[in-house]
Each structure stands twice: as structure tokens, then as C-alpha cells.
Amino acid sequence: MHRTMEMDRRIFVMKLVSAATMLGASSLALAEAKPMVAEADPQAVNLNYKTDAAAVKHAKFKSGQVCGNCALFQGKATDAAGGCGIFPGKQVAAKGWCAAYAKKA
Ligand code: SF4
Questions:
Q1: What is the pLDDT of residues 16-27, one digit of tens each?
Q2: Average of pLDDT values for 84-94?
């Protein structure tokens, strides 16, 4: 009987620890999820930012240019969205574009 209770206590503690770890990981993920830049954002309007480069009609725009291959894009090449030096604290769409586009070296 005593053994069983000790084992139960251990299992309970292990569950508690793993639940706390999961909770920590999910709150970390939430903290990292920055809001997306809206096209209506004043800075976005100024720079003609579009979430889809296909919709861009701008003299500077050249086919093939997207946030995902811009030097200011802070995400990985495979990310659908990532940070951008022009929009601190927010994320831009990898297939988006703005007039501050600079080709990645
Ligand atoms: S600076 Fe580059 S990554 Fe940032 S919004 Fe403009 S095109 Fe996209």
C-alpha cells in the first residue's frame, strides 16, 4: 500500500512538471507571435506594403521581389511570415512587398 502511494505521488509530480513545462513552452510561443502588419497601417500605406506582392502596382517593384528575399526580412526562407526592420514588433508576409525592398546579398 505504502509503495503504491509513493509511486502515485511520483507520477503526480512528473505530470505536474511536464504540464508546467508545456505551459511554459506555450506562453513562450505566444510571446513570440508578433502581430501581422496590416496594409492599412500608416507606415504600410506610406511604403505601399502589400501582403501579396502580386497585387503591387509600384514603379520600384520588379517581378520576383518579395519580403522573403528582402535583406530586411528577419524570418527564415521557409517561413510564411517574419519580422522586418521597417516594422518593428510586427511581422510581414513572406510573399508581401513594400517600397523599402532591398535585395538580399
Ligand atoms: S522592407 Fe523588405 S521585408 Fe520589410 S516589408 Fe519591405 S519588402 Fe518586406
A1: 555 555 555 554
A2: 97
Q: Would the CB of 67 count as within 6 Å of ligand 1?
A: yes
What predicted TM-score, i.e. pTM, was given to this entire model?
0.72
Ligand 1 atom closest to Cα of residue 66: 7
- From 37, 86, 104, the mutation candidate for ligand 1 (largest count of ligand atoms within 8 A of CB) is 86
Yes or no: say if 61 and 40 are a contact pair by the CB < 8 Å rule: no
Q: Which CATH architecture has domain 34-105?
A: Irregular (4.10)
Rounded to the nearest whole angstrom, what is the distance from the C-alpha of residue 97 to the centroid of ligand 1?
A: 6
In 3D space, the residue among 71, 29, 40 whose CA is nearest the CA of residue 21 turns out to be 29
Q: How confident is the model at residue 3 (pLDDT cuts 50, 70, 90)?
A: low
Instruction: Tell how far the Cα of 103 is from the centroid of ligand 1, in angstroms.
Output: 10
Residue 83 forms beta bridges with which residues?
91
Please report, for the chain, the start and end positions of each structural domain, with discontinuous segments joined by +.
Answer: 1-33, 34-105
